[in-house]
From TrEMBL:
Coiled coil: none annotated. InterPro entries: SNARE, Syntaxin-18_N. The chain crosses the membrane at residues 291-309. Residues 5-86 form the SNARE-complex protein Syntaxin-18 N-terminal domain. The lineage of its organism: Eukaryota, Viridiplantae, Streptophyta, Embryophyta, Tracheophyta. This is SNARE-complex protein Syntaxin-18 N-terminal domain-containing protein. It is a single-pass type IV membrane protein. It comes from Dendrobium nobile. GO terms for cellular component: endoplasmic reticulum; SNARE complex. PANTHER family: SYNTAXIN-18. GO terms for biological process: protein transport; retrograde vesicle-mediated transport, Golgi to endoplasmic reticulum.
Length: 310
């Protein structure tokens, strides 16, 4: 097998010789030779910059969830208010990322409308515009799926928190089932004393009455606390359901974008096929017109010849 040879130096020498013969000096030739080593970075399009920024936001959201995962699940490290603040931060991140994805999607539609308005045929002969549109739809689809995967992780953490809250509330409900307090009449019958001891039992009745009042007040307070806990559990379940619904909508939008991508590719093929059919129809029309003119010319010449001959 023949050995390969590196001809890079020969190419540089040929470029140097051609540049010197064209009047380049060493100072002008130095940037040209340096361009072979250090290439200038390509300028990114605005859509690419926005997509990378959205991806950075989603990655930052994932890092935030991973960084506060233990604080969110451990009851001894953070309070309920701090966990609510974590949920609020995550919801703000998700909303911002969703808005950025929507902006990218609307930008694709605006570019398609602009291309359709400025050109008779929206697809170039080589299909480069269709490939660019399909690529952008694919980028939006990938970003939507990435956001859905991150939000699903936080949904799992929220479900664990809700389940822990429910498990903590169930034993309290059992403990809060207080026995019915005795009526004053029953207390009087329980503490019935001989007539000779009525004067000494009067402070005991007052003390028992105070204890009963304190018990009733404590029971009312605990009942109100139980109602507050149940209301908080209901709100947390509703928040989890709303977040899950939002994640479902994000996934559905990702599926719709994928469907639009497939339809865009199919539409590109249909337009290319339509262009071929139009070209063939134009060719057939021109050939049939030529044949018709030739037929009329021959027919006219034949009539004139027959008239002359007769």
């Amino acid at each position: 097998m023949a050995k390969t040879r590196d001809r890079t130096e020969d190419f540089k020498d040929a470029v140097h010789t051609s540049a010197v013969s064209s009047g380049y000096t060493e100072s002008k030739l130095a940037p040209v030779m340096a361009s072979f080593i250090m290439r200038k970075p390509t300028q990114r399009l605005p859509f690419t910059k926005a997509s990378l920024k959205t991806l950075e936001s989603i990655n930052e959201l994932e890092h935030f969830i991973v960084r506060h995962q233990k604080d969110y699940l451990n009851l001894h490290r953070t309070t309920e208010q701090e966990r609510d603040n974590i949920e609020h931060e995550v919801s703000v991140f998700v909303k911002a990322s969703k808005e950025q994805i929507d902006i990218l999607k609307n930008r694709i539609y605006d570019e398609e409308k602009h291309e359709n308005a400025t050109r008779w045929l929206p697809i170039l002969s080589d299909g480069s515009h269709a490939d660019e549109v399909a690529h952008k739809h694919g980028v939006v689809l990938i970003l939507s799926e990435r956001l859905h995967s991150v939000t699903s992780k936080f949904d799992q953490l929220r479900s664990i928190r809700i389940q822990d809250a429910i498990n903590r509330a169930m034993p309290r409900r059992k403990k809060h089932s207080f026995p019915t307090t005795k009526s004053p009449e029953v207390l009087k019958s329980d503490f019935t004393e001989p007539e000779g001891l009525e004067l000494s039992s009067e402070p005991i009745r007052v003390q028992n009455q105070l204890l009963d009042d304190e018990t009733l007040a404590l029971q009312v307070e605990l009942t109100s606390l139980l109602d507050a806990v149940q209301e908080t559990e209901t709100k947390m379940v509703e928040m989890s359901a709303l977040n899950h619904l939002m994640s479902t909508h994000v996934l559905q939008q990702a599926q719709q974008i994928e469907l639009l991508y497939e339809q865009a590719v199919e539409a590109t093929k249909n337009v290319e096929l339509g262009n071929k059919e139009l070209t063939q129809a134009i060719q057939r029309n021109s050939s049939s017109r030529t044949f018709l003119l030739l037929f009329l010319f021959v027919l006219t010449f034949s009539v004139l010849f027959l008239d002359w001959y007769s």
